[in-house]
Amino acid sequence: MWKLLQIELFKIFKRPRTYISFAAIAAMILIIQLGLEFDGKSYLQLFMSGISDSFFVPYDLILNGYLVAFVILNTLLIHVPLLVALVAGDAVAGEANMGTLRLLITKPVSRTEFMIAKYLASVVYTVMLLIWMALLALFLSMLFFGTNDMLIARNDVMEQISRNDVLWRYIAAFGYAAVALSTVSALAFLLSVFADNAIGPIVSTISIVIVLTILSEMKIPLYDNTVKPYLFTSHMLAWKGFFYSKSNGEGQAISGSIENLPAILRSLGILLTYIVLLVTTAIAVFRKKDVLS
Amino acid sequence: MKSKLHRNNTMLPVVTINHLSKNFGAIKAVDDLSFSVNSGDIYGFLGQNGAGKSTTIRMMLTLIEPSGGDIEIFGLKLKSHRKEILRQVGAVIERPDLYKYLTAYENISLFSKMSGINIPKKKIMEQLEQVGIAERAHSKVATYSLGMKQRLGIAIALVNDPQLVILDEPTNGLDPQGIADIRNLILELSRHQKRTILVSSHLLSEIELIANRMLIIDNGKKIIEGNVSDLFDPSNMIVELRTMNTSHTLNVIHASSWKNNLEKQQQDVFFFKMDKKEIPVFTNQLVQNGVEVLSVQPRHSLEDYFLSLTSANQHVETFTN
């Protein structure tokens, strides 16, 4: 299995187009960082106009690397699924389109092993993309903007997290994001089994993610308790929960605490269930598939 | 498990296909097909496009699940011994589609690892040398001609040192030189490396040149199977004669014993059935009797028969019973 995974990773990272996603993420992050570097105060004023009328707001201290990274993640993690779909949607359909699938299947490797290796490779790609994102969004921002306590705007309340209490939250958030994106990857992977051209599964995955995200965000009571809890898109942004702390009697954040860890774990469980179901279905379908490409 | 597989035992069936069938909905792509390939054979698998050759080959390589029948390779059931069998099989299926963004060297290395082999650089270069593309080993496959890709495909098929090599239309789209190169390579693999080869084609002339046994299928069904030397029997040739003076030719023929060989006349073309050895005598006699011969074209009756299958819309005279 390790050898098969190596082969799949070799193929992914030998393709020039794989790096489009890395370049796109770098470009987006640098654009946001540049914007905040030169006009960060205006950006913050949009969110803090109510407070700044009554209190002195030290914008220079608030606009630190941790906050910049949070802004970037909020903006990008909605769009990264599109980039993830590019590789996972290509996993089987791309091979069929190139004509290499029929040669691969004639090798003495079981179809199940082949599919597991392919999915794991797309997960590794997703994790690499997130590590790249973390390096640029978090560590580069920390370098450029420095570090300080982090302010989070939530339900018209500003929560302050101590600078020493932030980094582990980012690590947990990136870990969660890896699972969330691997769910999108699993969806694209499943759709890839049904097609002989990567465009179909990629576009279908993006369409499904968009439709379900809209459904997840809609405030319609009928869907709130019936459909939304079971949509994977409803749980993809639960990484934000790692930045919500419990507060003490004086309203101060308790260092090292998470406000609702069970909710995060429940969301994580739902995403993992999706992954298992989607990948298992993909393997079952592929095992019976006639390779006609 | 390798010890279970018999190697180079002449006349032992390497492939045994029993009542194989494949349906795609209402379409019967392969219909109750049975045949066997013996060790050391170059087995020609012939049929027009859409006859069911590729579907059969794909079933032999586990790309397609049969609707019925069974396949045994090296004496083992394919269904239950897939991995053991595929370790000893190399194949090129239709087009030589490879990873265009990788080099030939990287492609071979990748597919050898897929076969569970980590072959050294020297062996990879030897494989590329054998198919004549060693000097382009480190060029991206995207820059290769079709002929070079086909040769690389064969090198990949041979990378696991297979006992059985399956080549599906290996000369498709190649120029005459490319076709000759592939033909020589197949003969080399058979004669010097003692591999069993199943090669499919829609060109009878190609199969005639390389195969020792052959099978013709049409509409997924077996039409004829046998030794090439028997099927291309030289005593049963069709000779097509064209002359300048048709009526005089007819008189000469009717005045001689050749009238018994005349099968048909179609305007200024005469069709005779005769032994290959009789053709020079026949031509000489015509010339000596004042017939102005334009052409004498010998053909096998099998060739005409096959043409009738492959060129349904063309006017072809068929002499096969």
**What average pLDDT do the residues of chain B reach?**
84
N-C termini distance of chain A: 25 Å
Query: Which percent range fits the helix content of chain A?
Result: 55-70%
Strand content of chain A: under 5%
Taking the sheet with the most strands of chain B, its summary is:
6 strands, mixed
Structural class from helices and strands of chain B? alpha/beta
Largest sheet of chain A: 2 strands, antiparallel
Largest interface: A-B, 25 and 30 residues
Notes on the protein architecture:
- The complex is a heterodimer of chains A (293) and B (321).
- In chain A, strand 1 (150-154) and strand 2 (157-161) form a beta hairpin.
- By secondary structure, chain A is mainly α.
- In chain A, helix 5 (80-88) crosses helix 9 (167-193), helix 5 (80-88) runs antiparallel to helix 10 and helix 9 packs across helix 10.
- Chain A has one domain.
- Chain A has helices spanning 2-14, 18-52, 59-62, 65-76, 80-88, 93-98, 100-105, 111-145, 167-193, 199-217, 221-224, 261-288, and strands at residues 150-154, 157-161.
- Chain A contains 12 helices and 2 strands; from the N terminus they run ααααααααββαααα.
- Chain B folds into 2 domains: 2-226, 3-Layer(aba) Sandwich (Rossmann fold); 237-310, Alpha-Beta Plaits (2-Layer Sandwich), CATH 3.30.70.
- In chain B, strand 1 (13-24) and strand 2 (27-38) form a beta hairpin.
- Chain B is elongated.
- Residues 1-9 and 312-321 of chain B have low confidence and may be disordered.
